[in-house]
Design brief:
Helix content is about 10%, strand content about 35%. It contains three helices and 27 strands.
Length: about 350
Amino acid sequence: MFRFRPCLLCVLTVWVLALSSRLGATPPLTTISDTLFNANGTLFNGVVVISWPSFEASDTSNVAASSISVLISNGILYVQLVPTTNANTAAVYTVQYNSFGVTEYSQAWGVSPSTIPLRVRDVLLAPGSITGSAPVVTTILSIADITGLQNALNVRPSVGTGFAISRSAIIDSTGSIAGAMGNLSDCLHVDGTSAPCGTGSPSSPTFVDSEVPSGTLNGTNAAFILANSPTPPSSLALFRNGLLLSAGGDYTLLGNAITFTAGAQPQPGDILASSYRLAVSIPGVSFVDQETPSGTMDGVNAAFTLSQTPNPTTSLAVYRNGVRLTAGEDYTLSGATITFITGLQPQPGDILVCFYRDTQTQ
């Protein structure tokens, strides 16, 4: 028993020395060294206060939350800090620059391990950044864990087989998103089909509005071309500088070609606009174009009669010498009878032209 005691003493001595060595070990440090200037180019003088939360360094050293004040004289910054970018727990240094007792500005530093001195730019972090190598905690959520997500997914449109990049999106027959087919210059219909602009069919009525006929406005050229042939031709309403022109008097129409009569050629600066239909057929609806109401134009008679009753009444457009009149101010409508306001009766030589719809079948 007496012989064992020296051995036990030796073991205890070695263990204490090892523990003391571990407890006395210094965590790795990185040197930050730089020269600081003021905005006017002078050297910064003041105090930098560096604070940090408690964290575990990469060597498992426990760094307690604290702060230090570093004196900056003639711009010289020198400080050694425990690296945080490889720390076992997330940590960031908060750095406040104070001069003459006033906090000038603050920074966040993330210090990486380095055997050579680092500058401030090497450790500077964006506000809100976090550094460290703490293990990532992953939480797996199912769709059912998020209220309403499944319903939102059920009603969202999905990508269909006809989906295409750089195409107008349409909803196909399955409710999925697809790309519109056709030429890039085509117009898209509300049913998702496409066709050359200005075309249509009896089942898909087409109206062309405010089209500018192509042709040279030079006071000599009389030939102008529409993109389509008005069907019927009487549906064409051709305007020049806002005035309705008279078919047969100001111009003739053959197919989609407009020819102005001699002396009526458009001048430079004139504005031409046209509206017309393309084989429109709507069950129960008919169109009346360029009708001249019956009645005596003598400057006294105020009552003129249409061949049909406009329905709706607001579809009636009355033009007098190319100027569109205003219902209620220039005339009133009762059934098929147009009555001009007193003092506004048409004069001999005036031209009346009417466009409207009714519910009869042509």
